[in-house]
Automatic annotation (TrEMBL):
Enzyme class, first EC level, given as a word: transferase
Protein name, per record: Transpeptidase, penicillin-binding protein
Lineage of source species: Bacteria, Bacillati, Actinomycetota, Actinomycetes, Bifidobacteriales
EC number: 2.4.1.129
The Glycosyl transferase family domain, residue ranges: 81-272
Length: 727
C-alpha cells in the first residue's frame, strides 16, 4: 500500500508540552492548580476560573469602543441630508441598547454559548478545541476562543493597525500558543474591569461583518437589510452573526457566497433554537425562507465619487478645506485620519436646491458631451455669511483614470482655488470693473465725473508703492469699436463696459488703490503661493480690465456677495459645524465677516451695475431677472478665451459664471464656433454667461420664494456729483 503523503496535523513532543503548559499556566493564573485536564469535574471548571483574580497587568490597551475607527458623515446645510460618507473602516458605533436582542443572542449562540457563565475563558471550549484539534486523529481545527478573547484579539489588531505597526498586527492574529495565552490572560483581566454587556457591546461594534471594510452590526444592518441594528430580526441577526467566521466567503451581498451564507445562517438559527433564543416555529419558518428574499443590499460606495445630489465637486471642496485647515489637526495626515476614522458629523453649507440647479444649468447651457468641448463653471455664495451654496460644472465628478480621456468627466473643480483642488484661475475681463469704481469713490470721486480717455497710456501713469510702471505704453481700446469715448464718466464706462474709461480711472488714482479695493472686497489670485493681488502675475495696468486677474469663479462669486451685502465681506466657508463621536463640537474655519466697504459706496455701485442691465446701451441687458426684480450684474469677455458674468440678488445669493476651454484656451478659442448647437463668430459674456446666470437665479428665486428688494442700489448724492436720479 502506498504511503499516505497527505498532510496531517501531527504533534511533536515539544508542541504537546507547549500546549499543555499553556493550558496549565492559564489554570494557575486562574487559581486552579489542580490538573483540570484530567478531572471528571472539568464540566464545572468555569466556576473555578470565574472566582480567580488574574495577576497580569495590561497597559496601553484601550477597550473603549468609542475610540474605534468610525465613518464620518457629510451633511447638507440642513444637518439631515447625507451627502457622502468617509471611512477606512465602515463602522458606526452604537450602544448595546440600540442593538436588537436577537442580534445579541445570535452572536452569543454562534460564538460563545457560555459567554454569560465564564470569566473570560471558556475552559470547556478550550478543552474541546484541544482534544478535537490535537488528540483526535483527523479532527478539524477548533478555535476554542471565547467571545471575550475574540474581542481582545480584534482590539489588539485594530490598535496595531491604527498605530501603523504591521508586526504587532500580525502578532495579534498569528496562530501561536503565545498569542492564545496572551489573549486568555487579558480576557481574564478584562472581565474584571468590564461587565458582560460592555464586552458584548464592544465585540458587536468591532467585529468584521463583511467585505469592503465593513465592521460592526450597525453598518451590517444598513448594508444587508437597509435597517438599523435595533430593528434586526432573528433571521437577519443570524445572517450577520454567521459572517464573522469568514467575512470574505460568507458576505451575503456577493451572489457567489449566498448558498454558503444561507447554510451558515441556518446553523446559527439552529443554535439559537437549541439555546432557547427562538422557538421551533420561528426556527422552521426562518430556515424555510431563502436568503435572497431577506436581503435589501445597499451601496457601500464612499467618498466624494459616491456623493449624492450631484454634489461631488462640492464634496471635494469640503475635503480639501478639512485637509488644509489647522483646526482639524497639526498635519495633513492627522486631518485625513480624522476624516476617515473620527466618526465626524460634518454639516456643510451646501444648499441642495442651489447645487442641483447650478449643475442642471451648467449642463443645459453647454451639455457635457457638446462637440465644442467648452466648459462652464458656476459658483454661488450667500451674501453676508460666506457660505458656499454649491457649484455647477458641465462635467461629472470622477477621480478615476476615465477622467483623463472622457470629456464628460473631471476630477478637478475649476470653480475653486488651486489649493482647494482647482486650477490656476482665469482672466475674467470686464466683470472685474466694479472694483475700479469702488476704488474711485474711495479716493473721493464721483462716478459722474467726466474723464478724458485715450487708447494709449504710459505705464508710469499707474505707478504707486506696489507698482512702478515705466516708459512703455499700454494700448487699450473698447470692444467692438477698437476706439474710445472721451470724455466719459465711470458710470457710463461701467454700464457700457468701456475699457478706456477704466484705464483713465487707474491713471488718475494709481493701480495700488484699485488693488487695495480688490483685497477689501475679497479678491485674491487662485495660484497657490501667489494669492496676493500685488503678485507680479497680476499687478499690471491690464488688471483694470481683468486681463491679468488669475481668479477662481468662487472667489468672484464671493466678491459679488460683498456687493450684495452692503459691503460686508466674508471668507468663503464650506463647513457650518463639526461634531465628534462624543457630540463635542470642533472648531471650524471662520468666515470672519466684517464691514469692508462703506455701504454708501456699495449702494452707488449697485446703482451703476443696474444701469448696465436696464439701459439700452448697457452691456448686461441679458442679465435682467424675471418678475420685475431689480437686477445687478456685470459681464466680462477676456478677448476670446473666457466669458464671464457676475450677478446677485441682494442679501440672498451671489453667482458667478465662467465659460471657456479651461484646458487649452489659447488654441481653442471661443470664436467662430457652435456651442450647444448655436453658432457665433463672436461670443461674449452677454451671449452665454449672462443668460446662464439669469436663468439659474430665476429658477432659484422661484424655488426659494426669495423676496424682491427693489430699494437696493439707491445711489448716494456725494458719489453722484450731488445729483441723485429719480427712481
Amino acid at each position: 500500500m502506498p504511503k499516505n503523503t497527505s498532510k496531517k496535523k501531527t504533534l511533536s513532543g515539544r508542541r504537546i508540552v507547549a500546549l499543555l503548559l499553556a493550558f496549565i499556566t492559564l489554570c494557575v493564573a486562574g487559581g486552579a492548580v489542580t490538573s483540570l485536564l484530567f478531572l471528571p469535574a472539568v464540566l464545572g471548571a468555569n466556576s473555578v476560573v470565574k472566582a480567580v483574580s488574574p495577576s497580569l497587568e495590561v497597559e496601553g490597551i484601550d477597550f473603549d469602543v468609542t475610540s474605534l475607527p468610525q465613518k464620518s458623515t457629510m451633511y447638507a446645510n440642513d444637518g439631515k441630508t447625507v451627502i457622502a460618507e468617509f471611512y477606512a473602516q465602515n463602522r458606526e458605533v452604537v450602544p448595546l441598547k440600540q442593538i436588537s436582542t436577537a442580534m445579541q443572542q445570535a452572536v452569543v449562540a454562534r460564538e460563545d454559548k457560555r459567554f454569560f457563565e465564564h470569566a473570560g475563558v471558556d475552559v470547556q471550549g478550550v478543552m474541546r478545541a484541544f482534544v478535537q484539534t490535537y488528540v483526535r486523529s483527523g479532527g478539524d481545527q477548533q478555535g476554542g476562543s471565547s467571545l471575550t478573547q475574540q474581542y481582545v484579539k480584534n482590539v489588539l489588531a485594530t490598535q496595531a493597525r491604527e498605530s501603523g505597526d504591521p508586526i504587532a498586527e500580525y502578532q495579534a492574529t498569528e496562530d501561536t500558543v503565545a498569542r492564545k495565552l496572551r489573549e486568555m490572560l487579558i480576557a481574564e483581566q478584562l472581565e474584571k474591569k468590564y461587565t458582560k454587556p460592555e464586552i458584548l457591546q464592544g465585540y458587536l461594534n468591532i467585529a468584521q461583518f463583511g467585505n469592503n471594510s465593513l465592521y460592526g452590526v450597525q453598518a451590517a444592518a444598513e448594508r444587508y437589510f437597509n435597517t438599523t441594528a435595533d430593528k434586526l430580526t432573528p433571521i437577519q441577526a443570524a445572517t450577520i452573526a454567521a459572517i464573522t467566521k469568514n467575512p470574505a466567503k460568507y458576505d451575503p451581498s456577493i451572489p457567489a457566497n449566498q448558498p454558503e451564507s444561507q447554510r451558515q445562517r441556518d446553523i446559527v438559527l439552529k443554535l439559537m433554537n437549541q439555546q432557547g433564543y427562538i422557538d421551533k416555529a420561528e426556527y422552521e419558518k426562518d430556515i424555510a425562507t431563502p436568503l435572497v428574499d431577506t436581503l435589501d443590499v445597499q451601496d457601500v460606495s464612499h467618498g466624494c465619487m459616491a456623493a449624492s445630489y450631484d454634489a461631488g465637486f462640492f464634496c471635494d471642496f469640503v475635503v480639501h478645506k478639512i485637509e488644509n485647515s489647522s483646526e482639524f489637526g497639526k498635519t495633513a495626515a492627522d486631518r485625513e485620519k480624522l476624516l476617515q476614522e473620527g466618526g465626524l458629523k460634518i454639516v456643510t453649507t451646501l444648499d441642495i436646491d442651489a447645487n442641483t440647479e447650478m449643475m442642471a444649468q451648467a449642463n443645459k447651457t453647454i451639455p457635457a458631451n457638446d462637440p465644442s468641448g467648452m466648459e462652464i463653471a458656476i459658483a454661488s455664495v450667500k451674501p453676508g455669511t460666506g457660505e458656499v451654496l454649491g457649484f455647477g460644472l458641465n462635467r461629472q465628478y470622477d477621480t478615476t483614470e476615465a477622467a483623463n480621456t472622457d470629456q464628460t468627466k473631471s476630477a478637478m473643480n475649476y470653480a475653486v482655488d488651486q489649493v482647494d483642488g482647482g486650477g490656476r484661475g482665469f482672466p475674467i475681463g470686464s466683470s472685474w470693473k466694479p472694483i475700479n469704481l469702488i476704488a474711485w469713490m474711495q479716493a473721493g470721486h464721483s462716478i459722474t465725473e467726466p474723464l478724458v480717455t485715450t487708447t494709449y497710456y504710459q505705464t508710469s501713469l499707474f505707478s504707486c508703492k506696489g507698482y512702478t510702471g515705466g516708459t512703455d505704453m499700454w494700448h487699450v481700446t473698447n470692444a467692438l469699436t477698437n476706439g474710445t469715448v472721451s470724455p466719459e464718466s465711470p458710470l457710463d464706462g461701467l454700464a457700457r463696459s468701456h475699457n478706456t474709461t477704466m484705464a483713465a480711472i487707474g491713471a488718475k488714482i494709481g493701480l495700488c488703490a484699485v488693488a487695495d479695493a480688490a483685497k477689501q472686497v475679497g479678491y485674491h489670485n487662485a495660484i497657490e503661493g501667489q494669492e496676493d493681488v500685488y503678485s507680479s502675475i497680476s499687478m499690471h495696468p491690464s488688471l483694470l480690465i481683468g486681463g491679468t486677474a488669475s481668479v477662481s469663479p468662487l472667489t468672484m462669486a464671493n466678491v459679488f456677495a460683498t456687493y450684495a451685502a452692503n459691503g460686508i465681506e466674508c471668507t468663503p466657508i464650506a463647513i457650518k459645524s463639526v461634531t465628534d463621536t462624543d457630540g463635542k463640537s470642533l472648531q471650524v474655519p471662520s468666515a470672519n465677516c466684517h464691514q469692508a466697504v462703506d455701504k454708501d459706496i456699495i449702494q452707488t455701485l449697485a446703482y451703476a451695475m443696474n444701469q448696465g442691465v436696464v439701459r439700452p446701451d448697457g452691456a448686461a441687458t441679458m442679465a435682467q431677472l424675471a418678475n420685475g426684480r431689480k437686477s445687478f450684474a456685470k459681464t466680462g469677455t477676456n478677448e476670446d478665451t473666457y466669458l464671464t458674468t457676475g450677478s446677485f440678488i441682494p442679501n440672498q445669493i451671489a453667482t458667478y459664471v465662467l465659460v471657456g476651454d479651461v484646458q487649452d484656451p489659447m488654441n481653442h478659442r471661443v470664436a467662430n464656433i457652435a456651442i450647444n448647437g448655436q453658432y457665433h463668430s463672436y461670443w461674449d459674456g452677454g451671449t452665454i454667461a449672462a443668460p446662464a446666470a439669469r436663468d439659474f437665479l430665476n429658477t432659484y428665486a422661484e424655488k426659494k420664494n426669495l423676496p424682491i428688494d427693489n430699494n437696493y442700489g439707491t445711489p448716494v448724492a456725494k458719489y453722484m456729483g450731488g445729483n441723485v436720479p429719480k427712481s
